[in-house]
Amino acid sequence: MNDFKDALTVVPMSRAQAEACCSWVYASPYDRIYGWLPFSQMEALGIELGDSDVRQQQYVSVLDAEGALCGFAQLFPMVNAVRLGIGMRPDLCGQGLGKSFVHAVVHAAKERYPDLPIDLEVQDWNERAIRTYLKAGFVVTDTYDKHTPEGIGRFHCMTYEGD
């Protein structure tokens, strides 16, 4: 697994990589929160990965040593923090690679926003992600309810404190 960590690079997200991310299908229950509209629809609506300016300003791709797309991250600048949105390719999930993946994303966020703290939101039922974030140096700093497409969801805000 050290080979995975040492081999990861974070690069600006290309259109082709955005299309690939939009095609990923996650197993239940993760399909409730991960997954995008089809890329052509996002592009037609001019939203998120389909908006070339937003993609260039906020999204990065995480690649392995061979240049294969392993996942993506959104680095969303807010007033007092940079908020991460993280997605690993579905076939890599649950294999113990998350800590290395998250560290690569955190490193990219620190390079881009060196003066901002780093945080993320995660639904409280997503124990797999929470364990990964804790191992990667995040701590729960707040818990709150928030509207989701499925109704009210309970979320943790987790802040990076290093490990």
Describe the structure in your own words:
With 163 residues, the protein is α+β, with helices and mostly antiparallel strands. The chain has six helices and seven strands, in the order αβαααβββαβαββ. It has helices at 2-7, 15-23, 39-45, 52-58, 98-112, 127-135; strands spanning 9-12, 59-63, 69-77, 82-88, 118-123, 138-148, 151-160. Strands 1-2-3-4-5-7-6 form a seven-stranded mixed sheet, with helices on both faces.
Q: What does the secondary structure layout of this molecule look like, with pairings?
A:
Layout: H1 2-7, E1 9-12, H2 15-23, H3 39-45, H4 52-58, E2 59-63, E3 69-77, E4 82-88, H5 98-112, E5 118-123, H6 127-135, E6 138-148, E7 151-160
Parallel strand pairs: 4-5
Antiparallel strand pairs: 1-2, 2-3, 3-4, 5-7, 6-7
